Amino acid sequence: MPTNYSQPCVNGPTGLPIPAQAKAVVYVDRVNPSSRHFDFSNYGWWVKTSTGLAGPGPNYFSDSTNNIWVDTQGSLHLKITYTNGAWQCAEIISDRSFGYGQYRFTVNAPVNTLDANAVLGLFTWSYDSAYNYREIDIELSRWNYSFGTNDVEDYAVSPYGTGQVRRFPLPAGVTNSTHSFTWQSTNIAFQSLNSGSSSWPGTNVLEAWNCSLGTPPAGGEQVHINLWLDSGNPPANGQPVEVIISNFEFVPLGSPPPAQLGELMWLPGGDIQLSVQGEADWHYAILASSNLLNWVEIGSVLATNDLFQFTDTNPVSLNPHFYRALTEP
Fold first, then answer.
1. Is 58 exposed, middle or buried (0-12, 13-18, 19+ CB in 10 A)?
2. Residue ranges of the domains in the chain?
3. Quick check: helix, strand or coil at residue 328?
4. Does 261 score more than 80 pLDDT?
5. Does the structural domain 37-251 have CATH classification 2.60.120.200?
6. φ, ψ for residue 192 (rounded to 5)?
7. What is the pLDDT of residue 189?
8. Tens-digit pLDDT profile for residues 276-306
């Protein structure tokens, strides 16, 4: 930027305008102390709330724990409720940007029986309008049967032109499904599996599609998960709508270097702390053995830095002790 550039005061917008003189753009998340924040799947999330109608829909969005909560098993619940004379929808937003890589969402719900007016959205969105807001969508909805009685899911890349949307049905009885997109600089590959992420990559492929039209560059986008009402219409059966998301994972592109165990330290009370050299944003399984032949997984870690620690809180169950760390797919 020129040294004499001065940003004029801006009131209200979600982001600052980008001046034409800019040679680079840096995205910084601003913490809103009045917004509800919580952890799900080892990532941090903000909860969307609105005092009036807001998109998508438009709808009212609530940050109440009656609409959004994480249960004792770690699963996320999104629920549309009727409160104070209005239907209240639910949306969460990751507190960081991930960029290129694979985004996986595991849904524990019979998606083919979702209410006709409800929409479950799993997508990226940037508050910078460049590149159509960097919106990459997986949506599960009947759209009030606007596209026929069978189609209940779509993949889409904004601005949804020809060749940028794929709609398809899902078979009855699918109650645990993993939906993903792998975002690269030249294309986006979508896939839906009739399985949970614990069995990734799985073999029961429900749908797969590759889109190379209008692929946006990564930059400042965040992950959104929402449950809302198409055109703001109430649920078709007049009842609350609930969906459970058991897991979200982000996996970087490429292959990480093998994990390396570092220093082992005995802690007060008998626990053992391991130092592991890995790579940020990868998941690592920690295994233990007493004979180097039979290994038992004792924990899983999402690395937030290249060097991280894991604490074995039950080391007395193995004597002697051996450890290893494996990168999860």
1. middle
2. 37-251, 260-327
3. coil
4. yes
5. yes
6. -125, 135
7. 98
8. 999 999 999 999 998 999 999 999 999 989 9
